[in-house]
Amino acid sequence: MGILEVKDVNKRFGGLQALGNVNLSIQENICHAIIGPNGAGKSTLLNCLVGKLIPDTGSVMFDGQSVLGRTPFEINQMGISRVFQTPEIFGDLTVMENMMIPLFARRDGSFKLHAYESVESEKELREQAEEMLREVNMADKRNMHSAAMSRGDKRRLEMAMCLVQKPKLLLLDEPTAGMARADTNNTIDLLKQIKDERDITIAIIEHDMHVVFSLADRITVLAQGTPLVEDTPEKIKGHPKVREAYLGESA
Ligand SMILES: Nc1ncnc2c1ncn2[C@@H]1O[C@H](COP(=O)(O)OP(=O)(O)OP(=O)(O)O)[C@@H](O)[C@H]1O
Predict the structure, then answer these.
(1) Ligand 1 atom 7, closest CA
(2) Which atom of ligand 1 is nearest to the CA of 47?
(3) CATH fold of 4-93+152-247, please?
(4) Prediction pTM value
(5) Given 34, 53, 119, 182, which residue has the most CB atoms within 10 angstroms?
């Protein structure tokens, strides 16, 4: 039994079957990549996991509980954090101010920036933010305005904002999209470090095969809304069905 269990999920957009009978089991504490050609249904699947879309049929269980019918905020509170293609940070705020947002949200149960009662004081939260920034090598940038940072640093900050919530499952939606090679390699190194040092499960959608093969322990190939094959990176590399789905070669 995986930490995330997707069973018989279907999702239609009008006449288009975006997901058809998707079954997926993601095991705890591994990195599981979901790859597939454009339009395969990867983002639709991810959106079904975080409450942004509701499947027409099927079930999505996380850590033994159904995520269906819950809001994205409730799913986040269950322990699922998502990093988007475009970093979702507040450019007008400093790195430290950005870090405090998810911590206040977790403490107060919403994005209220001023709460009267608290279990954890602001000082404790700041210490947690500082510790997290040290872990991702951003402590020296704590007072920097986020808008002024490189794309790689913005991504690093967004990951720190997710990780400080101590998620059990981190969902990454093309984390290196649009990055220069150096920033991509830094992001790979950061994710390897996160994998090695934390009890965390990572699910990643990614087009860059260098990133996928550097990080993934298991790979599911999605084609036309249905999982085609799931295996280790070594087996996936030479799989005839994968070559067919990507390159139009006959198996
Ligand atoms: N909100 C929507 N309304 C209508 N059709 C949609 C919607 N979202 C996605 N689709 C369609 O569903 C199919 C799957 O799209 P999805 O974005 O999940 O694919 P993807 O594998 O993530 O693609 P890419 O790699 O290009 O991001 C596509 O044909 C897409 O056009």
Answers:
(1) 13
(2) 18
(3) Rossmann fold (3.40.50)
(4) 0.88
(5) 34
CA gap 145, 161 in Å, rounded: 15
CA of 17 to the centre of ligand 1 (A): 10
Enumerate the domain spans of the chain. 4-93+152-247
Q: What DSSP designation does 198 have? A: S
With a CB cutoff of 8 Å and minimum separation 6, the contacts of 106 are: 77, 165
Show the ligand 1 pocket: residues with CB < 6 angstroms: 13, 16, 18, 36, 38-44
Which amino acid belongs to residue 43?
S
Residue 244, SS3 per DSSP: helix
CA of 170 to the centre of ligand 1 (A): 21
pLDDT, one tens digit per residue, over 205-250 is 998 999 999 999 999 999 999 999 999 999 998 888 787 777 565 5
Residue 213: helix, strand or coil by DSSP?
Answer: helix
Does the structure's ipTM exceed the value 0.95?
yes
Segment 70-111, tens digit of pLDDT: 998 889 889 999 886 666 788 899 999 999 988 887 776 654
Beta strands in the chain (DSSP E): 4-13, 16-26, 31-35, 57-62, 65-66, 80-83, 169-173, 201-205, 218-223, 226-231
